[in-house]
Design a protein that fits this description.
single chain, 178 residues, alpha+beta, Immunoglobulin-like, 2 domains, 6-stranded mixed beta sheet, 1 helix
């Protein structure tokens, strides 16, 4: 009787080992897929460098008056362009939460943008004085968007989102990574 008892226990132990190993394998596979999705691997919808357009700013004051496009009375005089010290208004509004995180903790980015549903926004981070694409995009839905990023770059990180199709960018948000 002792001989069959230890064989049963061995069989149960092997089966349990296989079940636990299978569960760990599934967890690792799901985590790998999420990491690949976060990094944008396999995302065919992400714009490539060949699709980028030259952005020409609008509403730049000109020193030479152009032709009038509206109906004006003969008594109206053109008003000179005045420069104000107000910061530029961003059509894309970005917020961040929290503003201080540990390495690889979630940094939630959300905001609003009056654009058609499905408009893709590229997350960008300022690196060495240059805005570079972060491997995360998000889409506008009902005038809002939201995503998260993770980074190991310690210190102050500056993020913004960009609508590559229109050339518009959001305000800059600051996050300290410890």
């Amino acid at each position: 009787m002792d001989e069959t008892n230890w064989q049963k226990q061995l069989l149960i132990g092997v089966v349990m080992l296989l079940v636990v190993g299978g569960l760990i394998g599934v967890v690792v596979a799901v985590a790998g897929l999420k990491a690949a999705n976060l990094a944008g691997i396999g995302d065919t919808k992400q714009p490539t460098r060949s699709n980028e357009r030259l952005h020409i700013p609008r509403n730049v004051a000109s020193s030479t008056p152009g032709p009038s496009t509206g109906t004006a009375t003969s008594s109206s005089t053109p008003t000179p362009a005045t420069h104000t010290s107000k910061p530029p208004q961003h059509l894309i509004t970005l917020t961040v939460s929290p503003s201080s995180v540990g390495s690889f903790e979630h940094i939630n980015l959300s905001g609003s943008y009056r654009a058609p549903d499905g408009t893709r926004l590229q997350v960008q981070r300022k690196e060495n004085g240059v805005w570079t694409d972060f491997p995360v995009t998000t889409s506008v839905n009902a005038g809002t968007f939201g995503t998260y990023v993770q980074t190991s770059h310690t210190g102050l990180n500056l993020f913004r989102v960009s609508d590559g199709a229109s050339g518009r960018t959001s305000n800059v948000v600051r996050v300290t990574v410890r």
